[in-house]
Write a structure and sequence with these properties.
By secondary structure, this protein is of the alpha+beta class. The chain has one domain: Beta Polymerase, domain 2. The chain has helices spanning 17-30, 59-75, 106-112, 114-117, 128-134, and strands at residues 34-40, 50-56, 82-84, 91-95, 99-105, 123-124. A hairpin with a 6-residue loop joins β3 (82-84) and β4 (91-95). α1 packs across α2 and α1 packs across α5. It is globular. The relative contact order is 0.22.
């Protein structure tokens, strides 16, 4: 075992809004977010280019997903401009400017139904394998 410190792995800084949205999706996927939906809303709203909507099985999982998105984006040099909903964990909103992430406890997502509300927004396909490749490997893995 080497006595050299391990290099900290960081995801690359997103070059544009789509890369930012995909990195958010990768971080959510890493914590087992369900029913992930990435919508391109630039033509429909003046305050964001993408909405990422994901579900969690519990409020605890919703908080874990949101915290991981925050952690990954901070490492990539993109802290949020706003965050809300952590106290209850039913609907957590993370605002990264051109990307807004909505982390829902599943029953709350069904109630508010953003999927239908923004039904005119084009959907961006999310490939789980491609998302996994966006994140650096965990630093605790043994060779």
């Amino acid at each position: 075992m080497s006595s050299q410190p391990r290099a900290r792995k960081r995801p690359p800084r997103p070059a544009d809004a789509k890369e930012l949205a995909l990195l958010c999706a990768a971080a959510a996927h890493d914590k087992k977010a369900a029913d992930m939906l990435l919508m391109e809303v630039a033509e429909l709203t003046g305050y964001a280019d993408y909405f990422l909507v994901v579900s969690a099985r519990s409020t605890r999982q919703a908080a874990a997903i949101a915290e991981n998105v925050l952690r990954v984006l901070k490492k990539a040099g993109r802290p949020p401009s706003g965050r809300e909903g952590f106290s209850e964990g039913r609907w957590i909103l993370l605002d990264f400017g051109e990307v807004v992430v909505h982390v829902f406890h599943q029953p709350v997502r069904e109630f508010f139904d953003l999927d239908s509300l923004w039904g005119d927004a084009p959907r961006v396909e999310l490939d789980p394998q491609a998302l996994e490749e966006l994140l650096p490997p965990a630093g605790n893995q043994q060779p």
